[in-house]
Design goal:
The structure is a homodimer.
Chain A lengths: L26 H7 L3 H13 L5 E2 L9 H13 L3 E6 L2 E6 L1 H7 L3 H7 L6
Antiparallel strand pairs in A: 1-3, 2-3
Helix pairs in contact in A: 2-5
Chain lengths: ~120, ~120
C-alpha cells in the first residue's frame, strides 16, 4: 500500500483560491472530477511524490498544453479535491487530504493505490 | 456505518449480460459511472436495501422514464459496477461486490456511506 505524504502547512501562505467548503463537498462531483486518468494521475502524484507543501503544474511533467492543464487543475479545485494558491505568477496545488478524509474516508487510499498502467 | 448485504448466488441463474472482466475494470471509468447522483443512489440502494439476489429497475422506485433508467443501468453495467441478467422480459441487477472489493477496496463502503441528501 503506497504511503500518502502529509506535510505541515508552512506559515504565511497566500490565501487559497475559491473552493467549496468541506461541508459542501459532494461525492458525485468529486468522483466526476476523478473520472479522468489525467486528473487521477495528478492527484495520485501529489499524494505519493510530494516534495514540497504544494506544487506548480510544471512539476508534474505532463506533456499537455498549459491551457489544458490549467483547465484540469481548476476542475479538481472546483470539485474540492485540490487546494490552489497563487504565488506571484505561479499557481501551486496540494490535495485537500484532511477534508477528503473527513468526508469520504478511503477515497484517497483508492486514488493512491490506482496504477496509471491498468485499463 | 451502513451494512452491505451480500447474498449467496442461487443455482440456475441466466448468464450475465456482456460486462468487462474483473481484470479490465478501470478506476476512472468506474468513478465516471458513479459520478451521477441517480446512479450513485441505484448502487447504494442495491447495497443496503437488497431483498433478493437481483432486482428489476421497477424495484428502485425512481420517478424517471423507463428509457432513461435503462440507459443508467446499462452505463453501470458497462463500467463493471452492476451485473445484469435477463429473466424473460425482465432485466435484473446486482452490484459486483466481490469484483469491486477485489480491485478497488473501500469503494463500495464510500458508496454505501453516501447520503443522497448531502450536496
Amino acid at each position: 500500500m503506497p504511503d500518502i505524504k502529509v506535510l505541515p502547512e508552512p506559515a504565511g501562505l497566500p490565501s487559497p483560491l475559491p473552493e467549496p467548503d468541506v461541508a459542501d463537498l459532494s461525492l458525485p462531483v468529486v468522483l466526476g472530477a476523478l473520472s479522468d486518468p489525467l486528473r487521477l494521475g495528478i492527484v495520485r502524484k501529489l499524494l505519493l511524490d510530494r516534495e514540497e507543501f504544494d506544487h506548480p503544474c510544471g512539476w508534474f511533467g505532463i506533456d499537455r498544453p498549459k491551457s489544458s492543464l490549467t483547465h484540469h487543475f481548476k476542475a479538481l479545485r472546483e470539485a474540492g479535491v485540490l487546494r490552489q494558491r497563487q504565488y506571484g505568477l505561479e499557481r501551486r496545488s496540494e490535495v485537500r487530504i484532511a477534508d477528503l478524509d473527513e468526508r469520504f474516508p478511503g477515497l484517497l487510499r483508492l486514488v493512491a493505490s490506482w496504477s496509471p498502467d491498468t485499463p
